[in-house]
Design brief:
189 residues; Gyrase A, domain 2; four-stranded antiparallel sheet; PilN domain-containing protein; PilN; coiled coil
């Protein structure tokens, strides 16, 4: 007696079970792969959105900072202009007493018989034109200007006789001496 075992239907069922499991595993892996890919895509998209928000915030802050820098530069330029104006006002304010002092010294040093006809000032140099009755009065006037504390050594540029009158017309330049400036500067020139 021989026993015949038919394994084919069993093998066939087993093969179908393995095929189903394989196909299920394949589908499950495909689903897991797609889900993982979609998850990674969402994660990277979310990270990209956050980075774009950061970039937009940085760009906005950078633009705001640029505006602030521009306004600060405008304020600094305005401050420089105001400081320059203040310096001019201070120089003018400081020069007021000096101008009065110069005129007082000119009046005090004026010798008898001498008249000034023109006075011009260029920087710290005064140019005087005047009339005197004789050459001695012109010399006395030069000495008086040289002795005045507001002036340095005067420089006589010309003396000529006034036509038709018995007078001398003279021109001279005298540098102003700043208050507190030593007299030694006169000896050097």
């Amino acid at each position: 007696m021989t026993i015949e075992i038919n394994l084919l239907p069993w093998r066939e069922q087993r093969r179908e079970r393995h095929s189903k499991r394989f196909h299920l595993a394949l589908v499950a892996m495909a689903v897991v792969g797609l889900a993982g890919g979609a998850g990674m895509t969402l994660y990277y998209q979310h990270a990209l959105d956050i980075q774009q928000q950061r970039n937009a915030h940085i760009t906005d802050q950078s633009a705001r900072l640029d505006r602030d820098i521009r306004s600060i530069r405008e304020y600094e330029a305005q401050i420089e202009r105001l400081e320059a104006q203040i310096a001019v006002f201070q120089r003018l304010q400081e020069g007021r007493p000096q101008t009065v002092h110069v005129f007082n010294q000119l009046a005090e040093s004026l010798e008898e018989g001498v008249h000034y006809t023109q006075l011009t000032r260029q920087g710290e140099l005064l140019s005087l034109t005047g009339l005197a009755e004789n050459n001695r009065q012109v010399s006395d006037q030069l000495r008086a200007l040289g002795a005045a504390p507001a002036f340095a050594v005067p420089n006589l540029s010309e003396v000529e006789s006034d036509q038709g009158q018995d007078r001398r017309r003279f021109s001279l330049n005298v540098p102003q001496r700043m208050p507190g400036q030593p007299l030694a500067e006169e000896d050097e020139s």
